[in-house]
Write a structure and sequence with these properties.
Jelly Rolls; mainly beta; 277 residues
Length: 277
């Protein structure tokens, strides 16, 4: 039923009446007010407690892994989280930690190698022999044989005709050969002449090959008749040689070959030969 609300003045008046009535009842006076006694109500029952929460499951421990060859031990598994408690319940128990992995055995260290012995110092090499001086030759090398003779061109038998050639002999095995054509011209005389100029000893040979007919050569006194070449000739150790030539043909024109050589082992023996036909 709805609750009756009275103004403060009426409430106070009621309380006075109730007090008086109470007093009357205590003295055997009947309540004539017509109001029933008001009983004190009993308090409501206490509410039931909330249900306890489920305990959290314990976490499974991590598996231990054995290290191979000195490997690290297995990692310890983390324990399970505790369950959230209900309003009254206790939290879940924590999971057991994982068992630690077995540590790998340490490898045995290798044996230290023996120290190498120190090597002996090498013997110093002998100094090289100085190179031979370079011989720069003015003549056209190679001209070491009659077939390789340096060609000097041609001259005639007039007195105004003639020329000179220079060369160097590089040791006893070196020979220098030259050749020129001597022309027998009308009005001039054939009288071949050769002059040698050298700082040392240079020997000279002259060979003749007539252009027509056979060749006859006469060597001056003190010179040597020589047939070692392809044609007849003369050799001399003097500074001048003037052999005589006679061709059996129509004139005394011939191809002349000159050979210069040194009997010693002189290096770079310089010389010059002046020639006339």
């Amino acid at each position: 039923m709805p609750r009756l609300t009275l103004p403060c003045s009426l409430a106070l008046a009621g309380l006075v009446i109730l007090s008086a009535l109470g007093g009357c009842a205590a003295h055997g006076v009947e309540d004539s007010t017509g109001f029933d006694s008001i009983q004190e109500g009993t308090g409501g029952a206490a509410g039931a407690s909330g249900a306890a929460g489920h305990a959290g499951q314990s976490g499974t421990g991590g598996s231990s892994v054995s290290g191979s060859g000195g490997g690290s031990g297995g990692a310890e598994a983390t324990g399970g989280s505790s369950g959230a408690g209900g309003s009254v319940s206790s939290g879940g128990s924590s999971g057991d930690g994982g068992t630690g992995g077995v540590a790998g055995s340490a490898g045995a260290g290798g044996s230290a190698g023996a120290a190498g012995g120190s090597g002996s110092g090498g013997t110093g090499g002998a100094g090289g022999t100085g190179g031979a001086p370079v011989c720069t030759q003015p003549d056209a090398e190679p001209n070491d044989t009659q077939s390789q003779a340096q060609d000097l061109g041609s001259i005639d038998d007039c007195d105004s005709s003639g020329s000179e050639v220079q060369g160097k002999l590089d040791g006893a095995s070196d020979e220098d050969w030259f050749t020129f054509a001597g022309k027998d011209t009308f009005g001039c005389s054939v009288n071949p002449t050769f002059d040698v100029m050298a700082s040392g000893t240079v020997l000279l040979c002259a060979y003749f090959a007539c252009g027509s007919g056979g060749t006859s050569v006469t060597c001056p006194s003190g010179d040597t008749q020589d047939t070692s070449g392809q044609d007849p000739g003369c050799c001399t150790s003097k500074t001048t040689m003037a052999p005589s030539i006679n061709c059996t043909g129509l004139d005394d024109s011939s191809q002349v070959y000159l050979k210069a050589y040194s009997p010693g082992n002189n290096t770079c023996e310089a010389y010059s030969i002046s020639y006339h036909y």
